[in-house]
Automatic annotation (TrEMBL):
This is Major facilitator superfamily (MFS) profile domain-containing protein. It is a multi-pass membrane protein. The keyword Transport applies. Residues 28-469 form the Major facilitator superfamily (MFS) profile domain. Pfam families: Sugar_tr (PF00083). It catalyses: myo-inositol(out) + H(+)(out) = myo-inositol(in) + H(+)(in).
Amino acid sequence: MAYPEWTIVDFIHRGPWWQNRIRLLNLWLCLPLLTSCINGLDSSLVNGLQILPDWQIYFHEPDGKTLGLLSAAQVIGSIVGLPFTPICSDNLGRRPTLFIGSLFMLAGVAVQSASTSIGMFIGSRCIIGFGLSFALNAAPLLITELAYPTQRGKLTSMYNSSWYFGSIVAAWICYAAFRAAGGSIWSWRIPTLVQAIGPILQICLIWFVPESPRFLVARGRESEASRILARYHANSGDERDPLVVFEMAQIRYALKLEKEVAKSSSWSSLYSTPGNRRRMTIIIALAIFSQWSGNGLVSYYINLVLEGVGISDTGTKAAINGGLQVWNLLAAMTGALLVDRLGRRTLFIISNVGMLIDFGAWTITTALYNTLGIASAAKATVPFVFIFYFFYDIAYTPMLIAYTLEILPFNIRAKGFAVMNFVVSLTLAFNQFVNPWALDAIGWKYYLVYCGWLIIELVFIVTFIVETRGRTLEETAALFDGEQQPQDLVQMGGEAATTTMAARTTVRLGDSENENEKNVTPRDFMELRSHAGPSVYAAYGKTKDYTTEHRQLYRVNTSDSDVL
């Protein structure tokens, strides 16, 4: 099927985002983006607090099982909340779910900062984890469903990348509190109170953020969805703007197709169709790969890894760890900005090839030091750790969530995302219990297991990952349901936009001083457009010659995006 003459490419804003209404939308989307920073801050804070002598003294130096339970408390709370989060997101909306999550997190922070026993502190961590599961489900859904079409890939990728920003803030807050209030309980209470800033901002400001138009259409509130798209996507602010008409037509048609394919949106619908089974296979695999690519060795046990190559000085280890967090943030943000330029599939392949080669070299240097005692091999290990994280961060950090959300259709998006989070939690638990035991038992030889696993990952990525660059959210989600559905969505949106263009455009005819004007039908308009070229674009306010080549800048070749 040929693409319609008018597509979303003709109506999207191509200048800097700050010169359009997009700037206001992006400003509001910073609020759900903050959720990932909150997660990074909270996840890293416990490690920072354990370094503080005053925290250790106040809670009687917890160790063993107590310390393990403390580390796992947030994950436990998240797992308890996971079954409820998609129900809340799909029935109440993305904004109320984020609001509820922030309330629980704020309550948990209050209990945590006022804790008088280690049991109370662990309980507060569970409450925070429970609330965080709601926020982590709703925030990326809101971003991916509300963002401007050309901004969606970057913003959703930046969401998970922002985790490192929170992690860096946590480290420096603990350091600053220790320097300013060392010797008092406020050296650990202040960092816990800082955790309240994010939830408070979300509780107070979330109602200024517009609701997901996809959710509103699904709930029969199309007029509200149209107003939101007009205000934040259309530069004219008009609900009859062709871009708004195009998006609304695609959303309606996509939801209609989803209802025809799946009669219900229960958990079983995740595997009820071949397309859904393929989606969930990819999502579960990516969730496992995101934690089992070797990154878990450094993320949670950098002390053991560095001591394994002879680096034992505390200051040196702290400097390497701190530098690695900043490096991770820069690499992840770089990947987020490249998702629309290089494509998702390309980045995943580059990432896995790079990790495999680098981890192999990392294994060799570790083996040389442990078996032959070669000091230069130990020194070479540190750069390999940084190189490994560069390749990991350009794909898995930004795209784990972004790719998951864009390949899921609306009716199972929240549930499929919850499954992804659940699998990540399980693999994290595996890392926390198995990795230290394995490193202690077989040392550097454990790295060989990851080398073999990285080969399996690369084969899977090359075989199953589908390119999604250059498509609207509805077109991307429909990729797994056959070749016809994405083309139908393009056609549906294009026809709706074309009708609107014809209704709004007045073509001037004749060369006399008293030129005649007439409103043309869609068919007349298409014929005139094909002959008049740039002049018809000028009727819509375009100043450039929008050639076929220019119009393809957002639409990629369909042969690059077909399901294998």
